[in-house]
Amino acid sequence: MITLLDYGAGNVRSVINAIENLGENVKLVKSAEDIESAEKLIFPGVGNFGSMMEVLHRNGFVDALKRYLESDKPFWGICLGLQALFEESEESPGIPGLGFIKGRVKRFKTDLSIPQIGWNGIKCRQPSIIFNGLKGDEKFYFVHSYHVAPEEADVILTSTDYGYEYASSIQKGNVIATQFHPEKSGNAGLKILKNFLELDSKQKVMPEIRLEKTRLAKRIVACLDVRSNDQGDLVVTKGDQYDVREKGEVRNLGKPVELARRYYDEGADEITFLNITGFRDFPLQDMPMLDVLRKTSKNVFVPLTIGGGIRDFTDKNGRHYTALEVASEYFRSGADKISIGSDAVLIVEEYLKRGGASGKSSIEEISRVYGNQAVVISIDPRRIYVKSPEETSHPVIETEIPGPNGERYCWYQCTIKGGREGRDVDAVTLAQICEKLGAGEILLNCIDRDGTNKGFDIELIKAVEEAVSIPVIASSGAGSVEHFYEVFSKTNVEAALAAGIFHRREVPIQEVKRYLKEKDIEIRPVYSEQ
Ligand code: 1PR
Questions:
Q1: Which of 273, 276, 326, 452 gets mutated to test ligand 1 (max ligand atoms within 8 A of its CB)?
Q2: 478 C-beta closer than 6 A to ligand 1
Q3: Which of 66, 260, 346, 381 is spaced 20 to 30 A from 17 at the CA atom?
């Protein structure tokens, strides 16, 4: 029996799913006594250091946790559950942590995108039971803006490079804590979690020591656009420049849960579901999407993002739902990140009108509670050509792809409602303002390229990626392995997303990764066992 400390933020469902998948039962902590009587305790944390400590205090968990840690019974802290063990954090100055390990939690100081989101390696520093069966070159899923800095080097279990080398996990007796998420790290993550669950029977193992720097992998994301077809079945569909109908019927490319599992097995680093009619069907009444998430998260152990319909909503009985409530329901059902499309455009319009943030937008509210890394902004832009930069007030780019009348300039107009309505906001401004409001990542689609197989719109991607410091996922237009290489070699995006070529089995994910590796682009290897 594993005891799990859920203090109410983020996706503990995936941790529960991973433990259950390994054949163990989970008991949730309801009181301080549950902590004291636990045999093995797992403490997953996401969100903000200060609010986590506040919740631990409010529930009377702090002293029980300190006693548990001192007792040297098996403990695993994940992400913020690692940071909690330290004395304090730059994220919430003046708020003490549990102080089990001497040292502080610091914000990354690097020119690289913050948060660090994605798959990075580990360098093992001391033997541990969790390394049993590991080769040492596996990658694990990280998502964080802060890292721990222990005062005593002997507690460091692994280190990782991101701009510089930092401690990515610690071990002190039977207390282990990792900055990365084992429950989101595919088979490698399940393996180390299993080692922890079987703690009694295993010897401490030291994998081969690696000296070279670890590198963050470029992520390959599989995207499933989901909606109901005319028969009322929830299907994965795919548009041509956002038009999902063929001969009047909604294209049906498969069932969401099955396809997601297939992409996990094939080595997708992340899976995104977009409920593409979410702008008109309120998701909390469209329960099948929640069900898709619940079922998928039971046996898919990489990050899951869900978008569509995340906004405030009043139903026909006058019941008001906030975007935060909608997002919370998605997180509870197994999502690691939510993505906001139409609402982000309206929020930015409002921001520009009032000359600043309201403090109440869905982006601000959700990132405050679940952390920036949990909020993705999905942008659906389309090119608007102009003859000269003076013709518009929007920032333009000089393009190598001239317009229908030979125009050499264009700007990227944001749209809402799945491209149905163009608005007076450009994609670069939108991305910058959303970053200010607390978004942690940009999913950059492109209506002109969607479903065309012509390759990513490099000009659009460069313009947005250079304007923000959060990670950008390039999307729309992938037609070949070369297109992935092009986007990673010509821009600094952290991830590339595709849909059509994967659904139609035209280019398998393994093939994309094999090609990128050949070209020396860092990827997460798809071992048969990882
Ligand atoms: O506006 O917050 O309710 O969110 C709705 C979400 O649904 C948005 O993220 C929006 O991008 C998406 N969406 C709405 N309508 C469509 C449509 O296709 N008719 N899909 C749609 C967007 C674009 C990508 C696609 C890539 C890769 N799909 O996600 O997967 O373009 O495709 P490709 O590799 O085949 O070229 P809200």
A1: 276
A2: yes
A3: 66
